Amino acid sequence: MLTQRSRYALRAMLFLAEMPVDGPPTSMTRIAAEANVPRKFLELILADLKGAQLLDSQRGKMGGYRLARPAHLISLGDIIRTIEGPLALVPCVSRTAYRPCNDCKSEADCAIRHAMMRVRDETARILDGTSLADATAKKLAAA
């Protein structure tokens, strides 16, 4: 399951994806209000997203945040990995944080591992194949 932190990050990024590309940066206060994210959590989330180079920020009275690259080049997978870490449900199938399971006799014969590899691959395919632009376009089409 996605944590509340990931849902907040996705909502904030989806909101920023709808902002004009050539417009001014969006203030944290506005992002918090429009994306319905508590400001206290948003500050930490935006710092993580900025650290992952998904956001740019500008200080000062007219400062705020904007996407670091076009919305079609930021996937939902990028955001979730930044906030949550690997997409794998078990460590033995993670591509970025592999660890053998302590109680597994044989990775090659483990039915759980094989099933979780398929889950990881399909999850990654969907999340990495869905950009912020895709998600906001679907949202607009549904409205």
From TrEMBL:
* UniProt keyword list: DNA-binding
**Pfam families, per this entry?**
Rrf2 (PF02082)
List the GO terms this entry assigns under cellular component, sorted alphabetically: cytosol
Q: Which GO terms describe its molecular function?
A: DNA binding; DNA-binding transcription factor activity
InterPro entries given in the database record = Tscrpt_reg_Rrf2, WH-like_DNA-bd_sf, WH_DNA-bd_sf
Protein name per UniProt: Rrf2 family protein
List the source organism: Sphingomonas yabuuchiae
